[in-house]
Amino acid sequence: MAVIAIYSMKGGVGKTTLAVNLAWASATLSRRRTLLWDLDGQAASSFILAGGRKARDEARAVIERDVTPEDLIVPTGIPLLDLLPADASLRTLDAVFEGLDRKKRLLRLTGQLERHYDHVILDCPPGLGATSEQIIRGAALILLPMIPSTLSRRAYAEVRDHLDRHHKGGPPIFPVFNLVDRRRSAHREAMAADPGCPAIPMASAVEQMADRRAPLGAYAPRSPAAASVAKLWTAIERKLAG
Q1: Which residues contact residue 72 at a Cβ distance below 8 angstroms, ignoring those fewer than 6 apart?
Q2: CA 154, CA 142: separation in Å to the nearest integer?
């Protein structure tokens, strides 16, 4: 089983839509048993994939060992794709992890899911703290979306430097340009400076995900954005295989 974290220090980089679309690609394009674990207290992935659900327990209870992950996992209606939903109880997730004082808690929890899933995709909250440390220790690959801008690229450099200083031998980071608008000169210049970085375009179809409560591939499979997601997923599988 591979754990893939969709993580960024910054908010507003399209992390959630990318997580949902890649989870769909894993389940639908690769036919892999996939779990999307929403760790972000804003619960946007949970709203898209299972917005009408009624919670039986607070999401933080899984971290605190009050319930097992299986107790809260719900189907999404998409074959082979399940969801471990988030709620407002995760807004203090850093404090929860700090209080537990267990550096590999997330790694152990995902290990419990190995017999059920081929891929676990983590929709992570932004920031650099106790939660990100758990993510770094628990992931096989960290996908780091960034808008082609100076601030987003700076945030990527900070994460990369943090890993180099504190997590030698940690998971590889896979940067991705997201919400790309080729009409903007700054975006074009950033992409020209790093031509090998995958790019997902900004598109109205992607913005409709929350309204439609569905992944892009479910309603706009032939769109350029969906094609870019599929291409990115193929690259992710190659990295995992390598």
Answers
A1: 55, 56, 57, 59, 61, 62, 84, 85
A2: 17
pTM value?
Answer: 0.93
DSSP state of 27: I
In the three-class reduction of DSSP (H, G, I as helix; E, B as strand; rest coil), residue 115 is classed as coil
For residue 96, give both structure tokens. 């929860």
Cβ burial, residue 218 (10 Å; 0-12/13-18/19+): middle
DSSP 177-223: EEEE-TTSHHHHHHHHHSTTS-EEE--HHHHTHHHHTS-HHHH-TTS
Each domain of the chain, given as residue ranges in start order, spans: 2-241
Q: pLDDT (tens digit, 9 = 90+) per residue, 187-205?
A: 998 888 888 899 999 999 9
Ramachandran class of 72: left when φ > 0, alpha when ψ lies in -120 to 50, beta otherwise:
alpha
- Quick one: fold of 2-241? Rossmann fold (3.40.50)
> How many C-beta atoms lie closer than 10 Å to residue 55's C-beta?
15
Average pLDDT score over the chain: 91
State the SS3 of 211-231: HHCCCHHHHCCCCHHHHHHHH
DSSP codes joined into one string, 61-102: HHHTTSS-HHHH-EE-SSTTEEEE---GGGGGHHHHHHHHT-
Could you tell me how many residues make up the chain? 242
Return the structure tokens found at 45.
Answer: 């992935």
Query: Residue 172 carries which DSSP code?
Result: P
pLDDT tens digits for 35-84?
Answer: 999 999 999 999 999 976 766 668 999 998 878 899 899 999 999 999 99
Helix locations, 101-184, DSSP H: 105-111, 130-138, 150-166
